[in-house]
From TrEMBL, chains A, B:
Keyword list, A-Z: DNA-binding, Transcription, Transcription regulation
Originating species: Candidatus Halobonum tyrrellensis G22
The keyword DNA-binding appears for this protein: yes
UniProt-listed PANTHER family: HELIX-TURN-HELIX TRANSCRIPTIONAL REGULATOR, ICLR FAMILY, HTH-TYPE TRANSCRIPTIONAL REGULATOR RV1719
Domain IclR-ED span(s) in chain numbering: 70-254
Protein's name in the database: IclR family transcriptional regulator
One protein family per Pfam: HTH_IclR
GO molecular function: DNA binding; DNA-binding transcription factor activity
GO terms for biological process, alphabetical: negative regulation of DNA-templated transcription
Length: 255, 255
DNA sequence: CCTCGCTTCCGGCTCTACCGGAACGGTTAT
DNA sequence: ATAACCGTTCCGGTAGAGCCGGAAGCGAGG
């Protein structure tokens, strides 16, 4: 989360958000645990928890507070009304069925990649990527596909904001390397990820662009490294991913 | 949403929440549209929108504000850490595969049913149930299964709070009918829904209970009315749903 | 160039968010 | 039993901040 320590216009809301963050980090916690965590008096934490509870953002579980499913509800509602999601979701399913691998839809927000939707293939190895999860764009194929469609100065800005932290030994951590990689992506038309975010996982991603050529997201397929190699990884899967991306782009316009 | 008009301890937070609700209802809106909608000066709406934006709960799209995927992120994160979800999710998948229909996991929160997870079967007719969607418990099979495991006075309380509004012509709208139905559910061990929330859709649901016998959720299968009839609807599917519920209950304890 | 609608900024007044402290309630130890 | 202790809940005063009106930017359109 941003944790802008700069003064927010509405300080009380800022405090409430800190309470939410605390509950998220603590999973379940009592009033005083929350108060300690964000360094406010218990009475203050209590006021905010109660306000959140009244609005059903927080629920009591025994003698502790937990975040409710209200967040999921709002997020799910917005996503369900989203034209991109509605258009892409069925195509994701198809892609997952055809490949047997996981298919993902990513969007960019605040300079980071959001796993916006996923479809499971036959291989149901457990992914760490919960819905909505945010990652640095350069660590995924879909993210790199998006970056490749953004103007250079915007990429610079994103790198300035979020850096290039190494997640695995294969993650791109150098700025020049990144731009070189983005050149390759633009040449190929698709992006790859060879264990750059998760050991043992390979991905192929392609950007979705609007009429102006601006990226509105990206789709990708991810699977175990062993099954994702050679022609399948460099030809078959990319072709399918690109075709799917194309179908989604077209359907975005005419329905 | 609750819309507790009673005074919240932290009024500023209450206002922020109203801004969020407004954005949700308006989909995308400018400062003044939000201000009008919740009847505050534009400058106030602006302050709150800016605070939300700084914390990445709201994003600018052109010259309008929209809710960001932050809600999905928080909700998805919590769900992913949830023992019930982690345990039930793979079983849902299996159930969807075996039946070819949609499989759902519902939990109860604030007296309403939350569609907490779903797995798609082969029949991919478009459901209106986005993830996190809240419904009145008595309108779904999973919800009735949960109600059947709650003490009568709690059921009374829930009905008092949320009423028994009719959604389709088959929805239970009478209190006595509801209790009669819950008796049947307890006898059978599972609950059914014959077009009580959606025309043309039948469901079968079974509750998940903890060691104390309190319901922690319910699983259900829903499909088109035509395919969900006779032995399949009254025997085969119920058996599978009950078996799945049982597997989840056991796995909850030993892993 | 002027108008109009919207967003953004600014500063003062008043209200309220915040806090300390006290009461309450449940649990454990003596 | 009873006391001690922990966390939660309640309460009231104060000073600091949220709210608001008004004005300044800023585009779009005539």
């Amino acid at each position: 989360m941003a944790a802008e320590t700069g003064s927010a216009p509405v300080g009380a809301t800022q405090t409430t958000i800190r309470v939410i963050e605390a509950l998220r980090e603590l999973d379940a916690a009592g009033v005083s645990a929350v108060a300690d965590h964000i360094d406010v008096p218990t009475s203050t934490a209590f006021d905010h928890l109660r306000t959140l509870e009244q609005n059903e953002f927080v629920r009591r579980e025994g003698d502790e507070y937990v975040l409710s499913s209200q967040f999921l509800e709002i997020g799910g509602y917005c996503r369900n009304n989203d034209h991109l999601y509605r258009t892409a979701e069925p195509e994701l399913q198809k892609m997952a069925n055809e490949t047997g691998e996981h298919a993902n839809l990513m969007i960019e927000e605040f300079g980071r990649g959001v796993f916006y939707a996923k479809a499971k293939g036959r291989e149901t190895f457990r992914l760490d990527t919960h819905i909505g999860k945010r990652v640095n764009l350069q660590t995924t194929s879909a993210g790199k596909a998006i970056l490749a469609e953004l103007p250079d100065d915007r990429v610079e800005e994103i790198v300035d904001d979020h850096g290039l932290p190494g997640i695995t030994e294969h993650t791109i951590t150098d700025r020049a390397d990144l731009f070189e990689e983005l050149d390759t992506v633009r040449e190929q038309g698709f992006a790859t990820d060879t264990e750059e975010r998760l050991k043992g996982v390979h991905c192929v991603g392609a950007a979705l662009t609007d009429d102006d050529g601006d990226p509105i997201g990206a789709v990708s397929v991810s699977g175990p490294k062993n099954g994702m190699q050679d022609e399948r990884f460099f030809d078959d899967i990319p072709e399918l991913v690109l075709r799917t991306a194309n179908v989604i782009e077209v359907n975005m316009k005419y329905q």
